[in-house]
TrEMBL record:
PANTHER family: DISULFIDE-BOND OXIDOREDUCTASE YFCG (PTHR44051:SF19), GLUTATHIONE S-TRANSFERASE-RELATED (PTHR44051). This is Glutathione S-transferase family protein. It comes from the Bacteria. It comes from Hoeflea alexandrii. CDD domains: GST_N_Ure2p_like. Transmembrane segments: none annotated. InterPro entries: Glutathione-S-Trfase_C-like (IPR010987), Glutathione-S-Trfase_C_sf (IPR036282), Glutathione_S-Trfase (IPR040079), Glutathione_S-Trfase_N (IPR004045), Thioredoxin-like_sf (IPR036249). Residues 1-80 form the GST N-terminal domain. Residues 84-206 form the GST C-terminal domain.
Length: 230
């Protein structure tokens, strides 16, 4: 059985969505990042980068959410593309675009909008701009077809879904109005029973909610160090 190390953040939830969509058996193992579970020796042996998600499949450990999606999709032979000779390159391109662009810029936009100490208008505007630019590329793609790969619902859509729910948090409450095609995709995926099960998964475990100094130290050690030096 696959061991799935997760919390309720965007990247773990897209893995939960795949596992539920594919009907794969898995054991959900909570990693409470506010309590610092990700820094334990046992978890770092699975993911040296101390991030969720990660999975262990037999003797194989896989980390980075899009690597996990690709691994699981190939293992299950599901949610790839019905025309591999035509669309394999597009699948890889868009999957890596989400991994190298959407995720990092969205995460930094959230960080500098909500969590970074002090005033850094340049950083806030830079990452907000790049997040908007990257999401507009996704929006433009979805204007052309129901899904990122045309008619096929795939792991690329699941990867987009993981982060798209955070658009209002990263760019403002009304930001989704600028992305009607993304909103359409989100509405469709959210209505799927597998998505409901994936979103309910964190309710099975008791994750720390308080964003106190211990949580800051575990999530953002550089911020904690700055505060301790002041």
């Amino acid at each position: 059985m696959i061991k799935f190390f997760y919390n309720g953040a965007p990247n773990p939830l897209k893995i939960a969505l795949f596992l539920e969509e594919a009907g794969m058996s898995y054991e959900a193992i909570p990693v409470d990042t506010k309590r610092g579970d990700q820094h334990s020796d046992s978890f770092r042996a699975i993911n040296p980068n101390s991030k969720v998600p990660a999975i262990v499949d037999g003797d194989t450990a896989i980390f980075d959410s899009n690597a996990i999606l690709l691994y699981l999709a190939e293992k299950a032979d599901q949610f790839l593309t019905s025309e591999p000779e035509k669309n394999r390159g597009q699948l890889l391109s868009w999957l890596m675009f989400v991994a190298s662009g959407i995720g990092p810029y969205s995460g930094q936009a959230v960080h500098f909008r909500h969590f970074a100490p002090g005033e850094n208008e340049y950083a806030r505007e830079r990452y907000a701009h790049e997040a908007r630019r990257h999401w507009q590329i996704i929006e433009d793609r979805l204007k052309l077809s129901p899904y990122m790969l045309g008619e096929d619902y795939s792991i690329v859509d699941m990867s987009v879904w993981g982060w798209a729910s955070r658009i209002p948090f990263m760019m403002g409450e009304d930001a989704m109005a600028d992305y009607p095609s993304i909103a359409r995709l989100m509405t469709e995926i959210n209505a799927r029973p597998a998505a409901a099960r994936a979103m309910a998964l964190p309710d099975r475990h008791s994750f720390k909610q308080a964003f106190d100094e211990d949580a800051i130290r575990n999530l953002y050690p550089h911020i904690h160090a700055i505060r301790q030096s002041q």
